[in-house]
Amino acid sequence: MSNPNESRARLIASAKKEFKEKGFAKASLRKISADAGLTTGAVYFFFQDKNGLFSAIVEEPLNRILEILREHLIADQDEVMHYEQHDGDHDAFAAALIGEMYADYDAMMILLHHAQGSAYENIVDRMIALLDEYYQTMAAQYASLFPGKRVNQYMLHWFSHMQINAFVHLLEHEPDKTQALKKISPVLDFMVKGFMMYILEDDL
Questions:
Q1: pTM score, two decimals?
Q2: What is the CATH topology of the domain spanning 1-48?
Q3: Local confidence band at 2 (pLDDT 50, 70, 90 cut-offs)
């Protein structure tokens, strides 16, 4: 085998193309290997199986995104009891998140649209569940400031969906990172204001 790092990189580049064209379930390891100028044995040597190869493409950028998201949610939880909204408050978070999302654009599109049958096929739902978990605590803290109010569970789950979908929509419709940053800022301002206005309801 030639330089192992070079061979591994060729397999990943070939796999990205195959997964984008056919999706995880229909992608052929034989085709991936042939296009990389290697045998299928090389796939098993470096990645064990197709899931391992798919993971090699999406796992690292996904973990970086999840870490940024968790850090932001923890910071929001710490601030919710004394937070005053100002437009642009979340621009630094958006810049960090979009920077990672667009650092490997192909991997993100594969993860979103070509993961069916892999261990990542429900990734959007898993990210929504992550937001729900943090927002439950945050909203409960916020509700404690307003006697006679309780968390509106429907709105909380809706906000989790909308926040994830806002970034998914951006990836799908705006391939330019600079434009994506401009477009997401007012979206986040709108969502924060909506959260503060509608996340609580009367405790009947």
A1: 0.88
A2: Arc Repressor Mutant, subunit A (1.10.10)
A3: low
